[in-house]
Design brief:
CATH topology of the largest domain: TIM Barrel
CATH architecture of the largest domain: Alpha-Beta Barrel
Distance between the termini: 30 Å
Bound molecules: S-adenosylmethionine, iron/sulfur cluster
CATH class of the largest domain: Alpha Beta
Largest sheet: 9 strands, mixed
Number of strands: 19
Mean pLDDT: 92
Helix content: 25-40%
Low-confidence stretches: none
Strand order of the largest sheet: 9-10-8-7-6-5-4-1-13
Strand content: 15-25%
CATH superfamily of the largest domain: Aldolase class I
Number of domains: 2
């Protein structure tokens, strides 16, 4: 299949028309389909199957703690300055690592590991080293493994960053959100510009292979001018990857967001002009649009992988690593073993109680059926490659002879024709291609194949634009 150049085109009217709550499709079915009725025995069975297949591993460690609450935050966090909370958590994290390690075939190698939060640098260096040692005692790493960590620049110094690099982390990500002081104050996250430039310089000096920064548009008091300034400063920082997240405003799920003055939020029209400027500035400065809020320098491995058709997507977002089984350690972490997804307990005390009982700390889960698996491939292909070959899907899943792609997805046809009429996709007999306009609405296009969305009348998802 010929690879498409991932350019992107802004169309204000269409973005407004398609602005609706949708999943982000880091997985299909989305995490909302994980249910408490799930039987943990099915997870043990999935481990056995994945051991047999010797699928490579991707590990995730969740460190939920933060010193103070950023009012926009939609992550799974525990806000506390009582640092003594970290040691017991570390102990339970190590216990979960030991628990999983006894079931996972030792020959399987880890090709990707990510530590996220919350704030992983809430841990002291010695706690970081303990966790690192526990994982490395039990799992074998591919020498080329992608090992990344999210840090909050506020509580970071040069020594800490160098120590992370020396341990073996090779990618780092930190949150900027916005350079403007008014915005920073309104969301309770004041971080001076000089600090952000220092953290970037230290990351470069330490030699991380890829440095990512996060921005959010749609925050209170943002205007076109302020955000243009934020984007320009970010370009000066020169990160390898930039995530520009659309503010997921879900106060019904995240009560901390009620502290944000609602009348200070930019209007939908203002947000769209901000998004337009973001795309213009970043692409003019050579960043490639990867998809779903992500931009990367053309020589960054994500951009290269996208051009070569080797981009993948899992619960950790876009990745260059193909098929791997994800194992999540710590509260709220998700594990994904081929056709089984599970999520750990969200509350510390439930997680601790399960570990004390030597039980699996699973709160909910789902086992995918064959239809889920087919739709997952279709959705991930569209999200990563911006195109799809129905022939490939037919061959991969032996839809063949009496059941071809068209028949299988007959119900979706109407929706696909609508997307085509609006210029978001181009349909030909054996090709679905996402247009440059459609790339910004990739969630909407993917959602045409989401069987759960049709059943879901009540939605908790954030808006697509
Ligand atoms: C776990 S945090 C990153 C690490 C660290 N805690 C920090 O804040 O620097 C992950 C990122 O998610 C993004 N984020 C958090 N809440 C969000 C929301 N409600 N809408 C959009 N993006 C959000 C922010 O850009 C944030 O940097
Ligand atoms: S944005 Fe980061 S530091 Fe702020 S509350 Fe969320 S996880 Fe914590």
């Amino acid at each position: 299949m010929q690879r498409l150049l991932p350019t992107v085109q802004f169309d204000c009217q269409l973005l407004q028309k398609y602005d609706q709550p949708l999943p982000r499709y880091t997985s299909y079915p989305p995490a909302t389909e994980l249910k408490p009725e799930f039987e943990t025995i099915d997870f043990r069975a999935a481990i056995a199957v994945s051991n047999y297949k010797k699928t490579p591993l991707s590990l995730y460690c969740h460190i939920p703690f933060c010193d103070s609450a950023c009012y926009f935050c939609g992550c799974n966090t525990v806000i506390t300055r009582r640092r003594e909370i970290a040691d017991p958590y570390l102990g339970y994290l190590v216990r979960q690592i030991q628990q999983m390690a006894q079931w996972i075939d030792q020959e399987r190698t880890v090709q990707q590991m990510h530590w996220g939060g919350g704030t992983p640098n809430y841990f002291s260096l010695s706690q970081i080293e303990t966790l690192w040692a526990a994982i490395h005692e039990h799992f074998r790493f591919d020498p080329k493994a992608e090992i990344s960590i999210e840090v909050n620049p506020k509580s970071l110094d040069q020594n800490y960053l160098f120590a992370l690099k020396n341990l073996g982390f090779n990618r780092i990500s930190f949150g900027i959100q916005d350079f403007n002081l008014n915005v920073q104050e309104a969301v309770n996250r004041v971080q001076p510009e000089s600090m952000l430039f220092d953290v970037m310089q230290w990351s470069r000096d330490a030699g991380f292979e890829s440095v990512n920064v996060d921005l959010i548009y749609g925050l209170p008091f943002q205007t076109l001018e302020t955000f243009q300034n934020t984007i320009r400063k970010t370009i000066q920082l020169d990160p390898d990857r930039i995530a520009v997240f659309n503010f997921a405003y879900v106060p019904w799920l995240k009560p901390v967001q009620r502290r944000i003055p609602q009348d200070a939020l930019p209007s939908a029209a203002e947000k769209l002009t901000i998004l337009q400027i973001v795309i213009e500035e970043l692409t003019q400065h050579g960043y490639q649009y990867i998809g779903m809020d992500h931009f990367a320098k053309p020589n960054d491995e994500l951009a290269v992988a996208q051009r070569e058709g080797q981009l993948h997507r899992n619960f950790q977002g876009y990745t260059t690593k193909p098929e791997s089984d994800l194992i999540g350690f710590g509260v709220t972490s998700i594990s994904m073993l081929n056709d089984v997804y599970v999520q750990n307990y969200k509350r510390l005390k439930d997680f601790y109680r399960a570990m004390d009982a030597n039980a699996l700390p699973i709160e909910r889960g789902v086992t995918l059926n064959q239809d889920d698996i087919i739709r997952r491939t279709v959705i991930m292909e569209l999200m990563c490659q911006f195109q799809l070959s129905p022939d490939d899907i037919e061959q991969k899943y032996h839809l063949g002879f009496d059941l071809d792609f068209e028949t299988y997805f007959a119900q979706e046809k109407f929706q696909l024709r609508r997307l085509e009429a609006d210029g978001l996709i181009r349909l030909s007999p054996n090709h679905i291609e996402v247009t440059p306009t459609g790339r910004l609405l990739i969630r909407n296009i993917a959602s045409a194949f989401d069987a759960y969305l049709r059943q879901n009348t009540k939605s908790n998802f954030s808006r697509a634009v």
